[in-house]
Amino acid sequence: MLDKRTTAKTFRGVPFPYRLLAPMIILLVAVLIYPLLFSLWISLHDYTLTRLQDVRFVGLANYLGLLRNDDYWTAMRNTVTFVVLAVGLEFLLGFSLALLLQRRLPFRDVFRSVLLTPMFITPIAVGLMFRFLLNSQLGIIPYILREGLGISVDWFGPRLALYSIILIDVWQWTPFMLLLLLAGLESLPKEPFEAARVDGVSGWQMIRHITLPLMRPIIMAAIIIRMLDAFKVFEYVYAITRGGPGNRTEVIQYHIYRVGFRFFRMGEAAAMAYTLVLVMLVLTIALVYAMRKEVTS
Amino acid sequence: MRGKTRYTLFALLIVLALAVGACAGATPTPKPAAQPTKAPAQPAAEQVTLTIIMEEVPDYDIVAKLAPKFEAEHPNIKIKFDAMPYDAMRDKILTSFMAPEATYDIIIVDNPWMDEFSLADFLTPLDDYIAQTPGYDFNDFVAPIREIGVVNGKIYGVPYYNYALGLIVRQDIFDEKGIQVPTTLEDYLNTVQSLTDENKSFYGAAMQPQRGYKIFEEWKNWLYAAGGNLMDEQGNVILDNDAGKRALSMYIEAYNTAAPPNSLNWGFDEALRSMASGQAATMLSYNWMLPTLNNSEGPAGDLAGKFALYPVPGGKAVLGAWHWAIPHNSKNKDAAWAFISWLTSKEVDKERVIMGGAPTRASVMNDPEVWEKGYGKDYYQTVLKILDNSEPLARGPKAEEIIQVVGTELNAAVAGEKSVDQALKDAADKVREIVGRK
């Protein structure tokens, strides 16, 4: 049994700030660092959930196996396509909307709140919503297109499935982009714009030569935050296409889920997850760099 | 000074991480016996609650309705169901297996998981229990279903319900046009093509080419009919032989010429809806879809009564089945068996089937009382015929992965992403790799 005095003695050497930090650090280690290290350990072993009595060290075999694993590369390619197109579109739409909403429009606050609503729905529900909205038999969107315009679009067919998923992501997350960029726009100094107006600069030139350069750090941050999030796309695929048709919408998170939790091959799944961590880490470093630049500039 | 404290902190972190890791990684040491037993325990007097994981389907509702009767007969046993959608089950069951104390005392095992779970020693062998249960008559279960629960000569599961596939047709259309219900693959393809009328948005076959499970389940019937199989008797992968190629080419032709457009993502519910709305003339589906379609209060409305069930073209059907099993780490195995053996006994099983449950026992399907109170003699005799000539969806400890992988390649071929030869070659190569992996 420790009494008060011995406890105090044990921690005497530890400076006061660290004593205050200790509970948080212990929590972080338990819920973050330990699982991270454990999954690293798993990724170096042949670790199958149905054969836990037979876990063998395999070194880098799980990682090297990925090099000639076509499914892994297909999933990575799909994910990168998804991230680039989805985040690109979200930025374009979000930035345009932010420029519009910055002006003194009537009912500006109403527009702002309505535009933000998609963000507050859980992604799995969004996935289910669009699964039915776009279903060729039951969906209202194909119905309107068919009856009204005579167009038949196979939204989840082999050609369009990935792009449909991208559009769903754009629908849900453009508001997030809008929110960040609008906050950025409103915090910009007024003077350069006034000076430019006096010099007779056109609206487009203003955006091109003043808004964009001033906004650069914020844009960087917004894009990278969205990219980190977009790499984690899972719910839409899970709810709608299950990775099909063929492998057209097999994204990396869904692939990891299948290998790890459907096929129970945790070692291989952990190795894939670590390669993804690597990609995300590079992006995070870029994010921190961009933010720091903002502070110094 | 600062550097030193930072170093100490870092060291502390590492020690902590290692300590936590060691705690979590250590195998739990067996707990010493709680108390030296003074008097022999009396299980009969003890209150037991059995937790059972179930899939939320109509067959579950029937079991849930029967359970209070069991509780009345066994006042010391309470039944608690944990019903959920199919996708959530596999992870939950596995987590329960690995926990020191099982979450579930009884589980239901899908056909592709049976070998995997049994060979991993997750399930309790039931041979002794069955032998000690008078009048249980295990051999009364139709052989192909019964065999799924037997792994390396030991019984790990007893049948819950079957989902063998059959050919469901609009009998009124076949009668009106005076055509025979097809019994070979060629006949079937010709028939569904001739029944298709795109101007009227009417199609010969509502198919289910969805990636993974669904297309595998449907196409394997075509594969059987073409004389092929996943593997031969010796376990060699023969999926990509000529029979396989013929089956897939014909399947794709049927999809392109006789199935509703844009149905590449369809599973059985979409196909059912298509049949029910009078859009399609035939489908390969679970045999118990027939009573659903012929129910005048069901999805088919006015079309109810116009549907009929036949064996699939070629005769040999894909068999799916759920089994009851007891996890190795359940603490209430005796009580669990008491419930399972009660529910699957001849008398209660008969009651279950009359209430609409999918049959598994031959005696029940041959029982005139079941015919009369259920869906009629024809239906049960056809189901029995289908079950007698059926083969499981897939066997072996890697069945789940094989189904997913082959189902992906098949779907890619139907989508036109790959040629028939290429898709089957890729599928066969992957199956060989999966089977060869330790």
Notes on the structure:
- The complex is a heterodimer of chains A (297) and B (438).
- Chain A is mainly α and 297 residues long.
- In chain A, strands 1-2 form a two-stranded antiparallel sheet.
- The radius of gyration of chain A is 25 Å and the shape is globular.
- The longest helix of chain A is centred in the first third of the chain and has 33 residues, at 70-102.
- The mean pLDDT of chain A is 89.
- Chain A has helices spanning 4-10, 16-43, 61-67, 70-102, 108-116, 123-133, 140-149, 161-186, 191-198, 203-230, 235-241, 252-262, 266-296, and strands at residues 45-46, 56-57.
- With 438 residues, chain B is of the alpha/beta class.
- Helix content of chain B is 47%, strand content 14%.
- Chain B is built from 19 helices and 13 strands.
- Chain B has helices spanning 2-25, 58-73, 86-98, 114-119, 127-131, 143-148, 171-177, 185-195, 213-225, 242-258, 268-276, 289-294, 333-343, 346-354, 362-365, 368-373, 377-388, 399-414, 420-436; strands at 48-55, 77-84, 107-110, 150-151, 154-155, 158-162, 165-170, 203-205, 280-286, 307-310, 317-319, 321-325, 390-392.
- In chain B, helix 18 (399-414) packs antiparallel against helix 19 (420-436).
- Chain B is globular, with a radius of gyration of 25 Å.
- Residues 1-5 and 9-43 of chain B have low confidence and may be disordered.
Biggest β-sheet of chain A: count, sense, barrel? 2 strands, antiparallel
**Tell me, what is the CATH class of the largest domain in chain B?**
Alpha Beta
The CATH superfamily of the largest domain in chain B bears the name Periplasmic binding protein-like II
- Average pLDDT level of chain B: 89
Radius of gyration of chain A: 25 Å
Give the count of helical stretches of chain A.
13
Low-confidence stretches of chain A: none
Count of structural domains of chain B: 2
CATH topology of the largest domain in chain B: D-Maltodextrin-Binding Protein, domain 2
Task: State the total count of DSSP E strands of chain B.
Answer: 13
Proper CATH architecture of chain A: Orthogonal Bundle
Number of domain modules of chain A: 1
DSSP helix fraction of chain B:
40-55%
**Which residues of chain B sit in consecutive blocks of at least 5 with pLDDT less than 50?**
1-5, 9-43
Give the percentage of residues in beta strands of chain A.
Answer: under 5%
Q: Any idea of the CATH class of chain A?
A: Mainly Alpha
Quaternary state reads heterodimer
